[in-house]
Amino acid sequence: MGYMRVFVVSGLMVFGAASALAEDCPACANLDGFVASDQIDNDIRRMVGKYKGGGGTKNVAVQQARGVIETGLQPAFIDGANCPEIDSEQWAIDYSYKRGKAALHKGIDIPQPRGTPIRAISDGTVVGTFMNDGNKKGIEIMLRHTPDQTGLSFWTYSQYTHLREMSPLAVGTVVKMGAEIGKTSNTGARGKRVRRDALHFAVLYSRQAEWSHDGKVVTPIDSYFMDPNAFYRLTEPYDSPSLLALPEDQKEVAVPYMKPDGTFVPATTQRIWPYHCS
Q: What is the pLDDT of residues 111-135, one digit of tens each?
């Protein structure tokens, strides 16, 4: 029998076998904030769409309550840069017609030619890599970013899916902003529709540091989805209801980026677009 350890999760004492803590992700065991997957509330599982006990309308209701609503935000690339843009697959649009049941698009899609490098949007740590066999997301990598790394007051998690192949970066790898973390493609289960090559890009956030990895998905404790455009705002608000309520003249977000020569615009930014801009 494994020896017992005590884990502190959001101020609560949690008892469990140490060997079970990282059973689904051995590489996660010593990473900052990692906790056992049974510490994740079922509503958070519904939010990310991975909870077997719920689906369709029930999941959508939780997702909407946790940020997956249209905000009207639009990116405005600094200095009018030529950056890969979001196509019609925008944030929080209704995906029911594609899924055959109630569903929302929990990210944005940015088309680019197959093989185009995808860039880390901030300094961070790899906390998940998934093949997602039989899943519409396809090959995926997920990064965790601390407040110090982004300049935000909370922890953020960036998700990149439809990768061409599994990223060579292992869980636990520390990456710098702008580092290549994968290549663009169109992997993932799909029906008769031909999917174009594009990055599906999503952001989650939490005021708490804890997160888990159950072998299928990364789930930050008490987390919410964020409109990916909002990630680049320099000031509050970041939550979707408040963003929706902003006046129309505050809906554009000045987005920083990395140039092909590796320099950043502006030079002091801690957050960038996931592709090079010129």
A: 999 999 999 999 999 999 999 887 7
Burial degree of 237 (CB within 10 A; 0-12, 13-18, 19+) = middle
> What gap in Å lies between CA 149 and CA 135, rounded to an integer?
31
Query: Which domains are present in the chain?
Result: 71-265 (2.70.70.10)
d(CA 174, CA 180): 12
Helix H, strand E, coil C: the string for 104-163 is ECCCEEEECCCCCEEECCCCEEEEEEECCCCCCCCEEEEEEECHHHHCCCCEEEEEEEEE
Q: In whole angstroms, what is the distance from residue 60 CA to residue 80 CA?
A: 36
| Spatial separation of the C-alpha atoms in residues 212 and 25, rounded to whole Å | 9
Distance of CA 59 to the CA centre of its chain: 18
Q: What is the pTM of this model?
A: 0.90
Q: Give the helix/strand (H/E) hosting 198.
A: strand 198-206
CB 252 within 8 A of CB 231: no
Strand partners, 21: none
